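Hi V.,

Quick status before I head out on leave. The structure for the redesign project is tokenized and pasted below; the design run finished overnight.
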């Protein structure tokens, strides 16, 4: 009995994909820091509940993805293993029952809704609290969940860019300040571009299995050749806009490591180095680091 419980706990630990929560939490922290930079007092209960709500939405997205992506993840488990694609494999390894993942996704989504109501009704964070939360819930849960399943409609990557690039940043600022300035839209460009590049890069390891399973994401729709060009465009857009913004705040030197990393990733893609499994894994991880590095650099700029 104890072994079974331990196995399920470990399974949900894998299923939750905790390291990947950083790409949603960091923009939220940036939005809070930006609000403080603009002169607003940070309300820590709002910050804590806001992060908790963001985590719940991400959990619902990850759990739903594990449930609704079983066919492609089964194929991925049989063909190849990637640290950045193919799901957590918790269901494939028998650690978690598929129905448990589906129920957990709904419970996480419900928890996110409750947190949104607490922020709005008890902490009086403003009328856009619920609409912003619903936008995140629609983008996150329905990314994989049927019948909508954004990822198979060629819209999944756009929703990821919106939710992780603009929404988390904007919601955090709004919850603290009660308004949405133009600066959050500008700052969201390199973040949205880099997180979209993350998703495109993570689709490369699963290209063949996604194609066989009929998962019509962007890469399957346009092919690896055009997908590599899209990846390069997103990386260059991310580092180009990040460089311009950091220069505006007289902090270009802080962004140079990210710019250098983005150039290296672009060159590796141009040279089709994604064909080598080991290098492809490094590119997947490097693109995540690019996204996180840009956000951390902006946080550093605004708390100097």
């Amino acid at each position: 009995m104890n072994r079974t419980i331990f196995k399920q706990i470990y399974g949900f630990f894998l299923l939750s994909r905790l390291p990947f929560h950083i790409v949603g939490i960091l923009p939220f922290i940036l939005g809070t820091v930006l609000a403080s930079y603009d002169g607003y007092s940070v309300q820590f209960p709002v910050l804590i509940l806001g992060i908790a709500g963001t985590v719940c939405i991400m959990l619902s997205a990850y759990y739903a993805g594990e449930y609704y992506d079983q066919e492609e993840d089964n194929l991925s488990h049989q063909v190849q293993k990637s640290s950045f694609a193919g799901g957590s494999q918790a269901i494939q390894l028998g650690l978690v029952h598929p129905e448990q993942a589906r129920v957990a996704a709904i419970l996480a989504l419900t928890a996110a809704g409750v947190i949104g109501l607490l922020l709005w009704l008890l902490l009086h964070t403003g009328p856009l609290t619920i609409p912003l939360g619903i936008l995140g819930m629609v983008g996150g849960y329905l990314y994989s969940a049927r019948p909508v399943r954004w990822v198979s409609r060629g819209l999944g990557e756009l929703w990821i860019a919106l939710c992780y690039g603009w929404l988390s940043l904007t919601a955090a600022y709004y919850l603290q300040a009660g308004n949405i300035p133009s600066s959050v839209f500008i700052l969201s460009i390199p973040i949205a571009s880099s997180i979209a590049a993350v998703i495109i890069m993570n689709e490369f390891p699963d290209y063949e299995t996604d194609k066989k399973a009929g998962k019509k994401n962007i890469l399957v729709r346009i092919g690896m050749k055009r997908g590599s060009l899209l990846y390069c465009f997103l990386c260059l857009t991310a580092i180009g806009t990040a460089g311009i913004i950091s220069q505006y705040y007289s902090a270009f030197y802080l962004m140079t490591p990210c710019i250098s990393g983005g150039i290296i990733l672009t060159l590796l893609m141009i040279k089709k180095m994604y064909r080598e499994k080991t290098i492809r894994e490094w590119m997947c991880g490097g693109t995540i680091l690019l996204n996180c590095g840009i956000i951390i650099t902006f946080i550093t700029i605004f708390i100097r």
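Above is the designed sequence. The longest helix spans residues 218-248.

G. will cover questions while I'm gone.

Best,
W.
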